[in-house]
Fold:
Amino acid sequence: MTGRRPPIPLNEEALRELALRYVGRFATSRARLLAYLNRKIQERGWGGEAPADPQGLADRFADLNYVDDASYAAMKSASLARRGYGARRVAESLRADGIAEADREEADAVTASESWQAADRFARRKRLGPYAQARPDPNQREKWIAAFLRAGHSYATARRWTDAGPGEVPEQEES
Structure:
């Protein structure tokens, strides 16, 4: 015998309390809240009279603006851009968080307008291109380009930043 009691099954009130605590503690999307609620029902079981309705609870929270996918997308994309990630990586992250295309429009526009600054922050943080101590050898250059691509930047942007010599910050091209 392990000494641990099995968890108490959830009911409507307990599920609502879990959801309130979750959205109060974490910035989240509707899809992430739904995944959390489904996981908790799976872990603890269901003991309510009516069948569990995590989708209805997530929809109710969205109606009350406890969960706002468009605001979450804008916040998450700004956070990732500040860390130096490019548009492709931001879009993949938002897609993984269950943000619909319509809710990503503002976030995508901001990410596109700040892509050059994000590449600069990435190069500075990783000490690549103009922020490196010396020019890279061909093998190191390929690794730098791969790092830029994994961060979600375009190949052209990656080449411009990795080809810049130490101390030579590339000029932003006009779109």
Observations:
- The chain has a mean pLDDT of 93.
- The two ends are 68 Å apart (CA to CA).
- The chain is about 60% helix and 0% strand.
- Residues 8 and 115 are 49 Å apart (CA to CA).
